[in-house]
Each structure stands twice: as C-alpha cells, then as structure tokens.
Amino acid sequence: MKKRKSLISILGVLIMLFSFSFQGNVQADVNTIQSGKIKSGNVTVWEVGNVAKVLADVERLNLNTVNVPIQVDIPNVNSANMVINQAQKKQAIILIQELLKRNIQVIVEPFPYIQQGNIGETEWNPSNINDFFWNWKTVVLQDIFNSITSKYNIYGLKIASNFVNMEYAEGYWNDTIDFVRQQYKGNILYQMNWWLTASWDPSYEAKFIGKINRPYLKKVDIVSIDSWFEVSGKRNPSYEEVKQSLFATTVYNRGQNVVQQLEQLHKTTGKPVYFGGFNVPARELGLQNPWNPDVTNVFSKDVQLNGWRAYREVLEPKPYFKGFSIWFIGSNDSSHSYQIHSKEADAVINGWYRK
C-alpha cells in the first residue's frame, strides 16, 4: 500500500514537472513570420495575470508580439491627475518577463483607466491641457522609463491611446515625443482612434485631412490606429461583400474608402500604418459596429471569419501596412464575442504574414 502511494506520488510529481516544462517551452514561431511585421495580441489591464492563457493564445495564433497595458488610474473624465496602478504594473512586468524569455516582442501601452474603468479613453477631456501633458510625461511615462523600458528590451511604446480630445495640441505632442526619445530608443507609436467619412458630408473628409496632417505624426516610428471601421450594414455579409465594403462602406451609404485612406495616411506621414487594436465580434451586424461586442445577441462565427479573411486579403500585400493586434487575447471568457470562435478564423490569423 505504501509503495502504491509512493508510486502515485512520484507519477504525480513527474506529470507536474512535465506540464511545467511544456508550458515553459512555449516559443513564438518568429522564424515563420515575415521580417519587420507585427502580429500582436492585446491583453486587457485586468487580465495581465493570465500568463499561461496569453502564451497559449500566442502559440495558437502564431503571434510574435504582445501589447501589454500599464493601468493608469484617472479619477474622472475631466481630470488631469493620474497615477500608475503599481499592483497592476507588477503583474504586467511578470508577463513582460515571461514573454521576453520566449522571444516574443513587447509593446507597452500606458492605458487610461478612467473612473474605475467605467469611462472609455476616447471620452477623456482634461480641463487643463498643460497639467495633462506635464503629468502624462512626469508621472506616467517617467515611471515606465524607470521601471520597464530601462530594464527590459521593449520593442515599442505607445505614447497615446485614442486621445481624441488632446490630439489638437501639436506643440505639446512634439515636446512629448522629444522627451520620450531622450530616454527610450525603441519604436514610438502614436495611437489614434478610427474615423469615418461620408460621400454626402464633406465636413467628415475635412476632419480626416486635419487628423492625418498633424506634424507630430511624422516624428513617431509607427502610426497606430484603434481600428473599428464601420464597414458593412448587412447582418451576415459574405467574404466578397466585406472585401468590397473596405473600398466603399455600406453603413448609412457612407461610401468610405478605408483602404485608400490608410494609404493616404501612410503617404502623408511617411510612416507605416498599424492596427493597434482590431477584431470582428462574432455577432450578426458585427461589421456594422465592430466596436460593440454585443451589437446583437445573435452569434455568427461567419461574420468574424469573413471579416478577418477580407481584411487579410486586402491588407497583407500592402508594404506600408505594419501589422495588427487582436483585441483581445489572454481571456478565459470563452463565450466573449471577441474570442476567435472558429478553426477557420484561427487559420486565417495564424497564416497572416507567414513566410
């Protein structure tokens, strides 16, 4: 009886050791990905502790990069006060360490967490723009330099995340980029929010032209877009319909040529264009309002698959297109519409940028 218990104990230890070593050997399959391209996944601020799930998703989708957020606590939508959440940062650093061990590139993103996460970053509108930039540099970015970028080989740093109400401040952003360059030698990313234009309203086009002509965009290394373009108004558009809609969106008959505008952004700034957050929810109408994971309650893995297929078919050959980051990976919520819900969609993502 004692021998049997001992044998069971030994087997249990061996199984645990084998499982641990297998998890520890997860590696980014970087040799299969075209040089210079980014295949990334975003982790949410509250899931940076899910290291094993992040690594599993990296392997399954053949990613070479992970976007790791650092939580920046902001009391309300008009506040210029901010502080890095040190407990969350500790978890993020553990994830960064595990990723770098496995040759997976890291993009660090100071992520605005407004009013306990109840308000989106696009709504942030500080009442004092001078205080905002001072605190963004000296409280947030300086902390990241001191505790992360000076200690680890960080591929990229997002200096902005969809700050629609602050992007007008060109002089401040020029100064911020200079400040970052002095202390960080990796890639600087400026992330803007997606936009819309409509053939029947020239004012949208004027806003777009103003957006892409911000002088500071020429000073960064990569122009990143939080990419939730409203492409198709159909409940279940086919692959061909989605592909056509990327050149003339059908939502409200806007006729927005997303592909042409991405190229225009590249030509204006001289910088590669990157989708810093992108996905298609597995819901009917998921390509009408992709920014809404619950746009309808009708599940549709075909909408997700056709969206990913069309975007890949159109953008993969474009030399100016740097890559994409899936929103999101590392989540154990298997029913969420932003999970990749079919083997076919898995294969589309896995094969993107394969040599």
Automatic annotation (TrEMBL):
Q: Which domain of life is it from?
A: Bacteria
Q: Molecular function (GO) terms listed?
A: DNA-binding transcription factor activity; transcription cis-regulatory region binding; zinc ion binding
Q: Which residues form the signal peptide?
A: 1-28
Q: Which UniProt keyword terms apply here?
A: Signal
Any GO BP? negative regulation of DNA-templated transcription
Checking Pfam families in the record gives: GH113
GO CC terms = cytosol
Q: What is the protein name stated in its UniProt record?
A: Hydrolase
Species assigned in the record: Bacillus paramycoides
